[in-house]
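user: Here is a favour to ask of a fellow structure person. I have my own habits and do not want them to colour yours. Could you put it straight underneath, so I can go through it closely?

assistant:
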Amino acid sequence: MRTQRSYQTTSPLQSKNALLEWSKNYTDVVWLDSNGHRGNYSSFEACLAVGRFREFYGLEELRKHFEHQSDWLFGYFSYDLKNQLEDLTSHNEDGIGFPDLYFFQPQKIIILDGDQLQFLYLDADDIEKDFEGIVSLMGEEGPINSKTSPISIKMRIHKDAYFEKANRFLEHIHHGDIYEANFCQEFYAQDAQIAPLETYKKLNSISEPPFAVYMRLGERYLMCASPERYLRKQGEKVISQPIKGTAPRGKDAADDLRIWERLAQDEKERAENIMITDLVRNDLSKSAIKGSVVVEELCKVYGYKQVHQMISTVTSSVNPNINPVDLITETFPMGSMTGAPKISAMKIIEALEETKRGLYSGAVGYFDPKGNFDFNVVIRSILYNEKTRFVSYSVGSAITAKSDPEMEYQECLLKARAMRSVLGEEV
């Protein structure tokens, strides 16, 4: 049973910085930050979970947790969990080594909501001391640039090979094997040393997205600036918000409006989005109460600091007694990172990509004691294994019948810009 106490804070931004600095005391950390984005399905402004009380590595033990116990869990589903959900395999190289699934029951949860810091602790004796420790860090900034070795970024798939593979995707589309596939490529650095928390802060400051994550699990780190929600359960309502369609921000307001309008009317980008929206509708219908699947927004363009994104919102209603893990297994991996039909697309992706995606294009988030949850899509992210000194980030784009490989390649470079700049080397 958790003890809850709330304290008023005068500066949410200072509270965030202090919480992140304070989290350095722990080896199990999940930080979720909405960066001020508020929508119909927002929850808190930010949340920090630290300290491992109990951990979960398998779907069945996770499912049983919700049958026998009610408490918060934080963690992730990696993309390669697909191999447990379908008759699929992954034999490509994996430089980071995250397990396929990991959740922990945290000892300490701190939620920033408005001007309130809410402490949810298993051991109430620590709350006052921890609050004082966090307050003492307010107004302080940790080192911003403590990188200790130069980063030399390599491309896993060079440009000519990218074109060749993109054309093979197009052949599969023209043969009717798939309608769409998300083709991803990895950029990586070996023998690299970075300061993960400072790297996350810089990455987050560039785009300030609604589903940012900093996660540390021992020697493995995720620094994530994701704009995309995978799946949220809020009471009896389930929400998915796939992104398909990306364009850069303009040089000035007039140029920005032109780009926004062009993306909103782009036939190829709308076709991408509609195909994935239809796939999401089908996924949600597996558990939905009959007739409850609704497309609330279709191909709506939202502006972020670096890019415009085309987003659709699909919702459904479910039986209140459903195990929340079943909603994940019926919809994972998310259609925006796979393609349509989903299983065929995943098989072709595995054959043509050259690395295991691992945590990239998986999902990070939380379950609450009522079985509600919220998970992002792990994109626009840097992964780091401190022990092996391996740094990785991946980007992708959707290949459809109307795709131009050169344009898809340029879209990948646009998406990679923030990670490149944070790591200090242009590709």
